[in-house]
Amino acid sequence: xxxxxxxxxxxxxxxxxxxxxxxxxxRNFMEVPYGYTSGEAVEEASRCLCCKxxxxxxxxPVEVDIPGFIGLIKERKFLDxxxxxxxxxxxxxxxxxxxxxxxxCESLCILGKKGEPVAIGNLERFVADYEREKGEIxxxxxxxxxxxxxxxxxxGPGGLTCAADLIKSGHQVTxxxxxxxxxxxxxxxxxEFRLPKAIVEKEVEYxxxxxxxxxxxxxxxxxxxxxxxxxxQGYDAxxxxxxxxxxxxxxxxxxxxxxxxxxxxxxxxxxxxKAYLFPEYDTPIKIGKKVAVFGxxxxxMDSARVALRLGAEKVYLIYRRSExxxxxxxxxxxxxxxxxIEFVFLTNPTRFIDDGKGNVCGVECIKMELGEPDQSGRRxxxxxxxxxxxxxxxVAIPALGTRxxxxxxxxxxxxxxxxxxxxxxxxxxxxxxxxGVFAGGDIVTGSATVILAMGAGRKAANAINEYLKWKYWDVxxxxxxxxxx
Amino acid sequence: MFAILKKEELSEQxxxxxxxxxxxxxxxxxxxxxxxxxxxxxERIPLTIADFDRGKGTITAVFQKVGKTTxxxxxxxxxxxxxxxxxxxxxxxxxxxxxxxxxxxxxxGIAPIYPITRALKEAGNKVISIxxxxxxxxxxxxxxxxxxxxxxxxxxxxxxYGRKAVVTVPIEEIxxxxxxIKLVIAIGPAIMMKFVCITTQKYNVKxxxxxNSTMVDGTGMCGACRVEVGGETKFACxxxxxxxxxxxxxxxxxxxxxxxxxEEKIAMDRYKEKMEV
Lengths: 485, 277
Hints:
The structure holds two protein chains of two kinds. By secondary structure, chain A is of the alpha/beta class. Chain A is built from 20 helices and 15 strands. In chain A, helix 7 runs antiparallel to helix 10 (about 120-135). In chain A, about 55% of the residues are buried. In chain B, about 30% of the residues lie in helices and about 30% in strands. Chain B is built from nine helices and 17 strands. In chain B, the strands form four sheets. Chain B has a seven-stranded mixed β-sheet, sandwiched between helices. In chain B, strands 5-6-2-1-7 form a five-stranded antiparallel β-sheet.
C-alpha cells in the first residue's frame, strides 16, 4: 500500500453500524443493527491495510480470506467479495452477525493495536446480505461424484458447514435433523432480532441447492441407529454434531414451579415455535412482569432480551461473578445494557418462592465475592454468609448451559465418552473411538459458539475426505489434548 | 407430511387416527410416544403410540379433544395430512415375564395401556386389566382389552356401565386377596395415577406410571416436561415417560399441567370463533 507515513499514524475510527433506537427495539423483534450501506462498507473496507501476512485469518476458525474479500469490497466487487467468503464459509450472513469477532479475527487486526480493528464482522454481513438481496446466489459447479455417502446428524452450524464442504468434494450427503426445521441453534436458539430466521432459511436453502439431502423430523438413535446408517443404509461415514444437550438446572428448591423455564425452552418457544406471535401461533409462553435470567453467556443475554420484547416491565440478569467475567459477546452485553436490562452481579439464587398455587413469585438470592481463580482462570465466586435477599419475579430463566444428551449416545455403546458424557474426539479431525464415526461441536466440547461448531465441521469434513479415500482409521485418543496424525 | 389413513370416533370426545409413518412403525415399541405438529403455526404436542402395524407401516394415535390443538386435530379427515410427526420417542416399557400383573387404563389412558397390556400378555404374564371412565359413552376398546387380558374389569364413576367405582376400588380388592401380583402399570389422568399409587403402596406392589407432562421438542433439549421423581428433577421425554409411581411427585405434575390456563382459553375461544365464521 502506498499510504504516506503521516496517514499511517492517524488511524481512522471504525465506522459505526447504525442501529434501531434502544427504547424502540426493546419492544420489537426486528433486527438491532441495520447493516452497512454499500458506501459505508467501502469506507470501512478502505481502513483495511490488506496485510501481506494477514494475522486476522489465523483468528478465524474456518480461515476466511479476510483481506481477500475486503479488497474486493474496496473495488466495489461486492458479489465477488461474497463468493470469496463462501469459498471458506457457507454461512456468511450468520457468522457476520453472531461470531464473537472481538476475540477472533478482529482481536488480531493490526489496526487494533493503536486504534480500532477493521469491522470484519460487519463487512462479512454486508457482502452476504448484498448477495442475498441481489438474488444472485451462485451455486458452484457440481463436482464429479465419488459414490461415497456421508450421514451428518444435526443440521446446526457444524452440520451445515460439514455438509457444504463434503458435497463440494463430490460425496453424497444427508443431513438428519430431529426438529421440524433445519438450522439447529440458529433457528431455535438465537432470537430473530439478532439473527433473522429468513436469513437462516436462505443459508440452508443454499446448502440444499448444493445438493445436500435434508431429512427433518428424524431422531437418530430412535428412528435409526448410527450402526444401521453405516451397516444397512450404505453410509460410509457419519458425523455426529448434535449440539446442546439437556439444559442444566440449579438443583435449588422450587426450580420446577410454573413460570420457570430453562433458557432452551424459553428460546425454543419464542424462536422456533414463534410464541411471541401467540395466539397467531399456537405455542404459548408466559409473559412475565418481572423476569430474572440467571447466567452470563450469550444465551442468558438472548433470554433477557426476548423477555423484554415479550413485554416484561423489568428484566434482571443475575450473574454470580462480575461483569468482567461474563462470557457473552461484548456487543450483546452492550445492547442489553442499552435496552434497560438490569444487571445484578455477584449474586446467586438459593431458592424460588411459591405463590401458594404452584407459580413462582420470587427468588431468594445470596451475595457473592470473588476469591482465587478456579480451573477456568476466572475468580471463583464465594457466597457471603447472611447476605440473602429476595427479589419479586413471576418468570425465571436459568441459562446455565447444558449437559450431554444421552438420547443418541446411549445407542452407541462402543463410542468412547469422557467423564461428563461428551464424545471423545480428536481435536483436529473429529475422529472418535468408533471407525467411520466423527464428532464435533457442543456434543464434544460442551456449550460453545456457532463458529467453533463450524470450525469443527470444517475439520471433520477434511478428515472425512481423507478417510473416504483410504478407509483407514488410526486414532490417537488418550487425553483430549492429544492430537493424532 | 403424514397421511391419516383411518379415522374412528371412539367416543364423543375421543378420536382414533391411523397414520402412515413407515419408519416410526418399524421402530415403535409399547410405551413410546411421538410428537406432532398439525400445521406451520401449530404447537408440538406429545401423544402416546397406542398401536402400530409394521406390515402396514402405520401408527395409531388416540386423543381426547381438550384444547385447541386436539380439537383442530379432531376436524382432520381420512386422507388429510399432518405436517410433522417425530418419533418414536421416550423409553419403551420394560416388558418381561413378571408373573401376575395388573394393567390399569383410565379415560383416554386406555389407549396407551393397550399395547403394553398386549406385550405383557405375549411375554407370558397373567394379566388382569382394569379400564375405567367417567361414564359409559366415553369408554372404548373393551373388546381389544379383553382379547389381551386374562381378566377384564370395567368401572365407571357414575355406574352407567360395569362397576360403579373408581379404578382403585377393584385394585385394592385384588391386592388384598392376591399376594402374587408383581406389578401394576397405570396410565390415565394424573389424579387417577396418584391414587392408584397411594393404593398400591399400602401393599408394597411395584407400580409404573406413564407421565403426560407438557413437552416442546420431546428429545431432552428443553426441559418443559420436567417432573420430580424420588426428589430429583427428571425429564419425562428422555428419562421416561414411565417412572416408578411411588416416587413421583404427582401434585407437582398436576400443577405443571395447569401452567397455561389463560393462554389455553384464549386459543380455544379464538378457535371457536373461527370455526363459527
